[in-house]
Design a protein that fits this description.
about 65% helix; mainly alpha; 3 helices
Length: about 90
């Protein structure tokens, strides 16, 4: 069986991208992690036939879910347009 259709491959990819998102937060890798997690769950539930049975279809599902997740994360967590992030206190002040 092709390694792309193993659910654990997608789960490991999701975990790695989630960890990398903690190191470099920008919501991009988190969107990819969500996309890979969804593909992993789909493969775990129904096998390769559940994602179309072809590698391009699995990649299309991954890309589509990642894009939607990224757009939702940006909408929910990003600063409003024209708003600047400011800090009133210094973390080094006691």
């Amino acid at each position: 069986m092709d390694l792309v259709f193993e659910w654990w491959t997608w789960a490991v990819a999701a975990l790695v991208m989630g960890i990398l998102e903690i190191i470099a937060p920008a919501f991009v890798l988190l969107g990819f992690a969500i996309g890979a997690g969804v593909v992993a769950v789909l493969l775990l539930i129904g096998g390769p036939a559940f994602v179309g049975g072809t590698v391009p279809m699995a990649v299309v599902i991954f890309a589509s879910v990642s894009l939607v997740a990224w757009l939702v994360l940006r909408k929910v967590f990003a600063l409003k347009t024209g708003q600047v992030k400011t800090f009133d206190t210094d973390i080094n002040q006691g």
